Amino acid sequence: MKHPLHIYNTLTRKKEQFIPLNEPFVGMYVCGPTVYGDPHLGHARSAVVFDVLFRHLKFLGYKVRYVRNITDVGHLEDELGEGEDKIEKKARLSKLEPMEIAQYYLNRYHYFTDLLNVQRPSIEPRASGHIIEQQEWIKKIIENDYAYETNGSVYFDVVKYSKKYHYGILSGRSIEELYSETRTLTGTHEKKSPYDFALWKKAPPTHIMKWNSPWSIGFPGWHLECSVMGTKYLGEVFDIHGGGIDLAFPHHECEIAQSIAYSGKMPVKYWIHNNLITLNNQKMSKSLNNFITLEEIFQGTSKLLSKKFSPAVVRFLLLQAHYRSTIDFSQDSLMAAEKALERLFDAFSIIDNFNISDTAQSYNINEYYTICIDALNDDLNTPLCISHLFELTKVINDIFYNKNKTLTLTDYNSLKKIYDDIILNILGLTPAKSEINNDLINNLMKIIIEERLVYRQNKNFEASDRIRKKLQELGIEIKDFKDRTEWKLKR
Ligand code: ZN
To answer: Is cis: bond before 4, omega within 30 of 0?
Structure first.
């Protein structure tokens, strides 16, 4: 590698060289799913982006502790801490235990992110398993005089905090701006000012998920869990905090305020945010009838798509955009990604058919390795890395189909390394149709092709055409070359 890792820090609004607090250890916290609904495209993007960062950091030699929380309590309908708990609401409507709802959707989240080849984090702590720690934090923030109790609930005092510290440091918002945005909210009569947020909420009598506390029987506010669990597993100051850009305000802004009120320290060195997904150029929203779950994509049951797409194609499409850019999902973009992914794996599937010779021409394949890693080191530029891989597929195909199919051992080893380290390991890509590699199908196709060759050699073209057509009906395409016959699965 020529260049060390640089990453864009939302806090400082610039690309910075990544220098961990305690090399080679890296602490990374990412806001995980709120488990009250089926995993959708938005979940997929955040999971895949931080998966590539996790994989890349490990590739660079860091020892990463990756913590991704599970929000199973306290995520209220409105982000400033009012309204009903979303899991609780679903539980009430479906007459299930809230933990049953949370477990069901967590299992679904794991199932679909596994399909996307997303590696599981090192620790997945649940908010509901850290109620005592959250209460300890609230006590200390009250002690430090940045929170107050009203009527059994505890609120963070944003006005008091912003006299000494910069509330808005991450999102770049001013307190005046916040005031105009929040003044119309209902239920603010308990708060000193409308932008104060809840650390603890007194539970209404019908509420199911509630705990004893010095203030009331209630439950913690959503923002608190990430500060508390991040600190518990990664320390008061840790390297990376990630999440979707929609979480920067108010969630992450509130986290910073809480942590500083608690310990006096800025909790995170690098704040990293992924941008959002649009669907057919519109914001994804159930009310716009413009919403798609991962299951619908993988099974082809969405009205917005005419066919199913594999998890590998979805992952590839997500990585074709830079994580800080928005990305538009559509039938067309998925089709294009599917074709491109196939082209990439087709090219790499022929590398074992090259001849190796000391006297072969050198193509400096190692240079592609370097520029791919450099692209990833430049703020995780996956689209640039992928475009380098496509330049390389042209080189591979050219040597194989137009030149003498011969490589030096160095070039051959570089190709293998690019395939293993970059395509499989860091980008986590897999062929769109892995069943192509299924041994049984390969062996059956070998028999069919050999039998068909006998017909062709006997000039029985009627029979050989019949086989070709029957295979075509099954979606298998046969291509005859001078010296061989090749097959592949069509779409
Ligand atoms: Zn969070």
So the answer is: no
- Tell me the CA–centroid distance for residue 252 and ligand 1, in Å: 7
Tokens for 249? 């305000």
Quick: pLDDT tens for 187-200.
Answer: 557 888 888 999 99
Alpha carbons 83 and 256: distance in angstroms, whole number: 23
Provide mean pLDDT across the span 223-228.
96
How confident is residue 435, by pLDDT bands cut at 50, 70 and 90? very low
In the predicted structure, residue 335 carries a pLDDT above the cut 90: yes
Q: Name the amino acid, one letter, at 367.
A: E
Of 264, 237, 251, nearest to 165 by C-alpha is: 264
DSSP state of 130: G
Distance 43 CA to ligand 1 centre (A): 14
For residue 141, how far is its CA from the centre of ligand 1 (angstroms)? 19
- CA-CA-CA-CA dihedral for 102, 107, 110, 111, to nearest 10: -150
Ligand 1 center to residue 224 CA distance, Å? 8
| Domains, the chain, with CATH or none | 6-274 (3.40.50.620), 282-426 (1.10.730), 438-489 (no CATH)
**Angle at alpha carbon of residue 263, lines to 261 and 268, rounded to 5°:** 95
| One-character DSSP codes across 153-173 | EEEE-HHHHHHHS-TTTTT--
Residue 285 binned pLDDT confidence (cut-offs 50, 70, 90): confident
Cα 430 from Cα 442, distance rounded (Å): 18
Extract the tokens encoding 241: 């905090």
Output the pLDDT for position 345: 95
Count Cβ neighbours within 10 Å for each residue of 131-142 and write b for 16 or more, e otherwise. bebbbebbeebb
- 444 burial via Cβ count (<10 Å: 0-12, 13-18, 19+): exposed
In 183-300, which residue ranges form alpha helices assigned H by DSSP? 222-234, 253-263, 294-299
The pLDDT assigned to 152 comes to 96
Q: Residue 82 pLDDT > 60, yes or no? A: no
Task: Please give the distance, rounded to the nearest whole angstrom, from the Cα atom of residue 217 to the centre of ligand 1.
Answer: 23
Q: Scan for tokens 């082809």, then name that residue.
A: 300
**Amino acid in the structure at residue 273:** H
User: What angle, 0 to 180 degrees and rounded to 10, lies between the N-to-C axes of helices 439-457 and 461-473?
Assistant: 150
What are φ and ψ of residue 243, in 5° steps? 165, 180
Question: Mind listing the pLDDT tens digit for each residue in 290-307?
Answer: 789 999 999 999 988 999
| C-alpha 79, offset from chain centre | 22
Task: Identify the band that residue 373 occupies on the pLDDT scale cut at 50, 70 and 90.
Answer: very high
Centre of ligand 1 from the C-alpha of residue 249, in Å: 11
Report the pLDDT value the prediction gives residue 174, as an integer from 0 to 100: 79
Identify whether the C-beta of residue 141 lies closer than 8 Å to the C-beta of residue 258.
Answer: yes
- Say if residue 116's pLDDT is above 90: yes
Helix (H) or strand (E) holding 103: helix 98-115
